[in-house]
Amino acid sequence: MKILYFTATGNSLHIAKSIAQSLKGELLSIPQMIKEGRFEFTDEKIGLLFPLYGYGVPSYIVDFIKRAKFNTNYLFGISTFGVYSGAVATHLMDVAKEAGHHFSYVNTIKMVDNYLPGFNMAKEGANEGKKGTEERLETIKSDIANSKEWIIPENFLRKLSFNIMHSIKKPVSKKQLKLHIYGEGIENYVYTDNNCTGCGLCANVCPVNNIVVDKENKTISLKGDCFGCFSCLHNCPQNNIHIKGEVSSDRYRNSNITLAEIVKSNS
Ligand SMILES: Cc1cc2nc3c(=O)[nH]c(=O)nc-3n(C[C@H](O)[C@H](O)[C@H](O)COP(=O)(O)O)c2cc1C
To answer: pTM for the full model?
Structure first.
């Protein structure tokens, strides 16, 4: 089994690792695969593990799925989310159809919500382990072990919320700013304090090499490729990187995952 994963703050990696350990899977980081130009995968079972953004599949994962070739009889997708998973399964199935893939199993798993404009990370982080995550994980492992064919059902309201979310191109009110997934132009919402040491960790945790570090002047600048994963914001050792509308300056990383693992996954 191969498990292709992306993570910004460790939730999806925690799930990917746990499934890989229990079911003897090989972990492959999606950012590494993209950087190596590796898009074809062959195995008895192949899984995708990623966080959900804006009630759907992150654009970065959509692009990967469209470029990838999966030679397998059992393709599964698991999305981690914080509060409301919207229509992620429907979105994933639509993308898969367009790309010519067939998913046998799609499920979601509730974890800490790392969306800074929506949540106070000190409070939300304290919910780790309290969202039924581990119980759901056991079900998912058993389903995959038994090659269960199942797609999590999503009703009309979920699809509507996804469509509304994705029709917002640019937030026009404070409320929309809180909800919006930023997407294009996210660099206009990111700002820094003056505590940068020029360590470059932000660049190492960025999956798309979007951050340029000026080590001499101890500043950073963003290129135009950000898709809004918040990895730099959460993992900066100086807590120097911020986003407009963030509820507090607290940050989060899954307690089962080290910073070194995130660097290894995304650099
Ligand atoms: C840009 C962005 C958008 C998000 N949108 C949603 C959302 O619509 N619904 C939700 O429940 N969680 C949302 N989240 C929370 C993440 O899906 C969740 O915290 C996930 O487990 C993070 O995984 P990771 O630690 O592997 O990066 C969002 C997070 C980010 C950064």
So the answer is: 0.97
